[in-house]
Amino acid sequence: MSDSKQFEVNFFKPLSDHARANRGLILILAIIWAVAVFGFQFLLMWLNQPTPEDSYEKFTSVYPAVIESNADNNTDKIIFSKALLHIMGKNVAVSDADKAIVKTAFSWTVKSMLNDSLKQELFQLNEASYSLAANTLKLENEGFDKIMIDLLPFSLVKVDSEAFPEECRAKLPGIMELYLIHNRSFLTDFNFLGFPFHYWYTAQFLLILFVVLCIIYAVRIEKANSKHNFVEET
């Protein structure tokens, strides 16, 4: 009886030169793919730096004055309110608990800019209320202001407190930091073919690379077949 090992096919312990060549080629292509995928992710992590959005910097610049009611001619309160609306614009990402804090802080701030008669109108929470809030914040019906106006019905809630709410004082800075500071680098800021480079690389380049590696394998294994006189049975 002939040695049964001649019929064994083992990727990890190849017995023939052709099998060893096939294993080597697969390992090389797998390493290239792994480096392209995971190496890029590690590079992003290494290069990324926490970068605040403009809204966060504006928020931190006026926050002390607003909570202590020392805002200058409502200008600081308007800046503060728009930063809070920016958070509300991230609706899907913001948790319900954080939304409640932001809504309370926003509503209190708008209320603090109105006289007693208008405060009652604000908390009717109808179209007139939203129009009053938009006018108070000097929002115009164009550009990003229009988005902020559309957010008003989802951002105003009734607030009774005359002082800045304590729950907002304690939690709001952390909430703003969580949603308005992001990791960024030149890889995320640089655009390529109309997309942020990191998005294009992950969504398109890696798919193209996979197809290219498959083609390389097909070409190289065909050459290996010829070199080692490997003929498929028909």
Task: Please describe what this structure looks like.
The protein has helices at residues 17-47, 54-67, 75-88, 96-112, 116-122, 127-136, 143-151, 166-180, 186-189, 197-227; strands at residues 49-52, 181-184, 191-192, 195-196. With 234 residues, the protein is mainly alpha-helical. The chain folds into two domains: 16-48 and 189-227, no CATH class; 52-184, no CATH class. The strands form two sheets. Strands 1-2 form a two-stranded antiparallel ribbon. It has a two-stranded antiparallel ribbon with strand order 3-4. The longest helix is centred in the first third of the chain and has 31 residues, at 17-47. The model has no long low-confidence stretch (mean pLDDT 86).
Give a short overview.
With 234 residues, this protein is mainly alpha-helical.
Key terms for this structure?
about 230 residues; mainly alpha; 2 domains; two-stranded antiparallel sheet; 10 helices; rod-shaped
Total number of β-strand segments?
4
Rg (CA only): 30 Å
The overall average pLDDT, rounded, is 86
Low-confidence runs: none
How would you classify the helix and strand content by structural class?
mainly alpha
Share in β-strands: 5-15%
Order of helices and strands: HEHHHHHHHEHEEH
Largest sheet: 2 strands, antiparallel
Count of separate structural domains: 2
Strand order of the largest sheet: 1-2
CA-CA gap between termini? 26 Å
Q: Please give the share of residues in helix.
A: 55-70%
Oligomer type: single chain
SS summary, helix count:
10
CA-based shape: rod-shaped
